[in-house]
Design brief:
- The chain is mainly beta.
- It has one domain: Beta-galactosidase, Chain A, domain 5 (Distorted Sandwich), CATH 2.70.98.10.
- The protein has two helices and 29 strands.
- Strand 8 and strand 9 form a beta hairpin.
Length: about 375
């Protein structure tokens, strides 16, 4: 194993991708994608080292970076936030195929989780496969990528998701003032478009532009529409500096998307108001970011917030994350649809389009 930003782990790489995955928490970052003559690195690495804090800070927060798997999703009554997969030590190594093959036995849920991460051959993409076995009952879960937009101008990144049934600001208090936290959005406010979401100051804000609302932390959830013949997957996308990062999923496995908008709104350790311009684009089966007990109440319309697992059956979940070059002036992504068996067409809100190589069938 090799260390990166204070964390031991493994490198997974292909001809267009090189990424570090931590042993503790199985967190992927940094990740370098080759785009022509450029190398881009969209994932966040937090501005602190793991050894700056003791065990009173959960491993999830000490090592916080990039992309990681959560089971159960959210805080626990008796356990680390987002479960052992995001806090405990994974074992494994890079296999003969070049894919990183990891596993973890979870003391909190009883599950065994295997994770396989591979880089796309001939194209800049990461393919994730999660296999869950030994798990009994109803559980929430999610995949938790965090992007770093702190180097972009205010509002420069353009953020969007595939069509959604409804959207809502977190229904409780997401940022607690008593803990030195601040939020900008109205608790529980619903919306049907990302560009007009109610704020506590009486106005509205455009969530398709990031970074924005410096000094605040907010969370919203969008419940994905079902797939169609034209669009056989759900997607999330962020247009950055000359390229777009995008994620593809099956909404039957991950029925909602959370935006965690982290822009210096937390003063306590380890945050210390320095987690700036970060954007979590979390694909989940969960009641917002609440604990599994709340998710088991199944209180949200048009969405399942837990999945029923059987200990003697293995459940497989897949996600693809990729990047593609875009021309100057490329706007907010309006659609991502297949353009062949291993290619997608990405169209912005002005009608501009680019094609990208990615095996979208992988997630179906």
């Amino acid at each position: 194993m090799q260390s990166n930003h204070g964390a031991e782990g493994w490198w997974v790489q292909s001809d267009h991708v090189r990424a570090h995955v931590t042993a503790v928490g199985g967190m992927l970052a940094p990740a370098e994608f080759k785009l022509g003559d450029r190398v881009v690195s969209p994932y966040s690495v937090s501005p602190w080292q793991p050894d700056e804090f003791g065990d009173d800070v959960p491993a999830l927060l000490r090592f916080l970076r990039g992309d990681f798997f959560c089971l159960p999703f959210g805080p626990q009554d008796d356990g680390a936030p987002h479960g052992d997969p995001a806090n405990a030590r994974w074992t494994g190594d890079v296999g003969a195929s070049g894919a990183l093959e990891l596993s973890i036995d979870c003391g909190d849920s009883g599950a065994t989780v295997s994770k396989v991460i591979s880089g796309g051959e001939g194209h800049p993409a990461l393919y994730y496969e999660f296999r869950i076995s030994g798990l009994e009952g109803e559980w929430s879960y999610g995949n938790h990528p965090i992007l770093d937009c702190s180097g972009l101008a205010e509002g420069q990144a353009r953020v969007s998701v595939s069509p959604f049934r409804w959207g809502s600001v977190y229904q409780g208090v997401f940022s607690n003032p008593e803990a030195g936290e601040r939020q900008a959005l109205v608790n529980g406010a619903t919306f049907d478009t990302l560009d007009s979401v109610p704020m506590l100051d009486g106005g509205t804000t455009d969530l398709t532009r990031w970074p924005d609302r410096r000094g605040f932390e907010d969370l919203v959830m969008m419940v994905n529409e079902p797939t169609t013949e034209e669009r056989p997957f759900a997607w999330s996308a962020v247009v950055m500096d000359g390229y777009v990062w995008f994620s593809l999923k099956n909404p039957e496995d991950f029925p909602a998307t959370l935006f965690w908008m982290s822009n210096g709104g937390r003063d306590e350790a380890p945050w210390n108001a320095r987690h700036i311009g970060r954007l979590g684009i979390e694909e989940v089966c969960s009641h917002f970011c609440d604990n599994v007990t709340r998710s088991r109440e199944k209180a949200l319309p048009g969405i399942t917030t837990v999945r029923k697992f059987k200990a003697d059956k293995t459940t497989t979940l897949k996600i693809v994350q990729a990047v593609a070059e875009v021309p100057n002036g490329f706007g907010k992504v309006e659609s991502i649809v297949p353009a062949g068996p291993k290619r997608v067409l990405i169209t912005d809100d002005h009608g501009l389009s680019v094609e990208a190589d990615v095996d979208w069938n992988y997630v179906i």
